[in-house]
Specification:
By secondary structure, the protein is mostly beta strands. It has 1 helix and 12 strands. The protein has one domain: Jelly Rolls, CATH 2.60.120.10. It has one helix at 139-152, and strands at residues 30-33, 36-44, 49-56, 60-67, 71-77, 79-82, 88-90, 94-97, 101-107, 114-121, 123-127, 133-138. A 6-stranded antiparallel β-sheet has the order 1-2-3-10-5-8, covered by helices on one side. The two termini are 21 Å apart. Bound molecules: fe (iii) ion. Fe (iii) ion binds next to strand 4.
């Protein structure tokens, strides 16, 4: 029941998120690996899904992984490709990664920096060359990484809470 005719938001609805996707404060970027960071935007614990920016400032193979669920990507800057496909995702490209797909993300040598928005449902399952599982990520491991990083850099662990629903 909408309690107020002037309000467009149901009282049970979760609060909105509206932030500059590219943060001014470098500390908002969470280190993921050497030359790799992510910036959380929406960490959805109800559906096991998350939206983030991935920023890469090195070339070569990033990871080989499997998505059991769909992934949507939009390239904001730079370019990258998958070893398993012959297309290149460039600035402005949209990519749909279907459930069940295994692929190996590569940033080419002539790309100094790539930034891509990803909407990921479920998990990332990391694989070695023989498709053996080497690790995984989900919305909860992402929240934990953010909390630990924001604690370390002085933003406070609770800084991540604004992105969690
Ligand atoms: Fe992927």
């Amino acid at each position: 029941m909408y309690s107020n005719m002037n309000s467009s938001t149901h009282p049970m609805a979760a609060p909105e998120i509206a932030v500059p996707a590219l943060p001014e404060d470098e500390r908002v970027w969470v280190p993921q690996a050497q030359g790799v960071w992510f910036r959380p935007l929406m960490l959805n614990t109800m559906q096991g899904q998350w939206c983030n920016l991935l920023r890469v400032r090195r070339s070569g193979i990033l990871s080989r992984h499997l998505h059991p669920n769909p992934v949507h990507g939009y390239v904001i800057k730079g370019k990258w490709h998958y070893l398993e496909h012959d297309w290149v995702a460039e600035t402005g490209s949209y990519v749909f990664e279907p459930p069940g797909e295994i692929h190996t993300l590569v940033v080419p040598e002539d790309c100094e920096e790539m930034i891509t928005f990803f909407n990921i449902t479920g998990s990332m399952i990391y694989l070695d060359a023989e498709n053996r599982h080497t690790g995984y990520e989900d919305v909860f491991t992402k929240i934990d990484m953010c909390r630990a990083h924001y604690e370390t850099v002085g933003l406070g662990g609770e800084y991540v809470d604004q992105f969690v629903r």
